[in-house]
Amino acid sequence: MWIALIFLTILAMIYFRLKRPVDEKIEPPSNLTMFFHPVQGEGDLFIGGLLLIFFFSQLFLELFQALKELF
Fold first, then answer.
1. Which of 18, 26, 28, 61 is 20 to 30 A (C-alpha) from 38?
2. Residue at 20 is within a domain
């Protein structure tokens, strides 16, 4: 389920970025935007962002399961 959520998030980000017109003037993106940006961001940072999302989701899953067993 978590992997499906990650892939759906990736597809949503890519779709959102590709549907924007090319000539749209925007401010330089923040570091967080560059970290997670699938189209114009740095490739290795994007992979790092995916790993960050995956491992945080696994962490939260483990925490919620531990709380469920505790209560």
1. 61
2. no
CA distance 71 to 69: 6
Continuous H helices in the chain: 2-18, 31-36, 43-70
What's the predicted TM-score (pTM) here? 0.42
45-69 pLDDT tens trace: 667 777 788 888 898 999 999 999 9
Is-contact 24 32, C-beta < 8 A?
A: no
CA-to-CA distance for 37 and 59, rounded, in angstroms?
23
Work out how many domains the chain is built from and give that number: 1
**Domain membership flag for residue 59:** yes
C-alpha span between 46 and 10 (Å, rounded): 10
